[in-house]
DNA sequence: AAACCAAACGCAACAATGTTGCGTTTATGT
DNA sequence: ACATAAACGCAACATTGTTGCGTTTGGTTT
């Protein structure tokens, strides 16, 4: 296991147990630069293949801020490591979600979307969620 | 039925049959100012309560541009009337989707979100999808 | 108005995602 | 080494959405 000490630290900090399944889940996340669904994880993991266990670990990781929901549609939720834990996210505290039209992966990428909202006063806008769509490097012609 | 003639016209224009179920589906949409899921429709309708029929009608309506997907999450897809058919959308050709944190309804509202995207050149951004979140008039304190 | 036909319907069956309950195992602190 | 709560694993279930197929029906043609 590659990022073993990083993973052990991460679990320790949050008071979570270092079980084989949870360690491998985080390892899988650290070895991918795109977001993963529960089903993705179950297929990629070598130890333990019970969906329920994975679902419960995902919820726990999200509650502890280790993971966040990167995208969500009728086919389910995809999670990604939060910035400060993600080896692919070095330079920013904030990221944007990009969904590739080619490979359909969800990437957490660096960048900013500057925006100004003008809507009817019948609605109080507290947040704006952006998702970018297009082609990633691998899928560009 | 209130909007009967409007509904008959709409179905005629698109070469769709004026069946009781489809007429009532459109009627339900016209009597709501927020987006509806297949399940919402099944519960609100008085004639025909087969999920499959509703699903297939939704697909057909979307293909004909009568409806569009207003929001989508793990709990399913919500549809809304396209602007030109929607009695609640008088003044604009474009709308924005607003999801209320209180009632969790999805509204198609008038307004604009000006935005500028700055991201790594590893990703070619073709479209930007955004959703506004906050509180609607009914849910404001 | 009778016949025709494709559109629409309705039922059964299925797949996938996600959740809950409950008994068992195991990581971890004492 | 022991105790205990966290984590696991299994069965069962709910919901959304899809597919196949036979039947009904709206709309057209004759």
Question: What do you see in this structure?
Answer:
Two copies of one chain form a homodimer. Chain A has 141 residues and is an alpha+beta fold. The first copy, chain A, has a single domain (4-139), classed as Winged helix-like DNA-binding domain superfamily/Winged helix DNA-binding domain (Arc Repressor Mutant, subunit A, Orthogonal Bundle), CATH 1.10.10.10. The first copy, chain A, is 29% helix and 33% strand. The first copy, chain A, contains four helices and seven strands. Chain A has a three-stranded antiparallel sheet. In chain A, helix 3 (38-44) crosses helix 4. The radius of gyration of chain A is 17 Å and the shape is globular. Chain A starts with a helix and ends in a 5-residue tail after the last strand. The mean pLDDT of chain A is 92. Chains A and B meet through strand 4, strand 6 and strand 7 of A and strand 4, strand 6 and strand 7 of B. The first copy, chain A, binds a DNA duplex (30 and 30 nucleotides) through residues 16-19, 21-22, 37-39, 48, 50-53, 55-57, 60, 74-77.
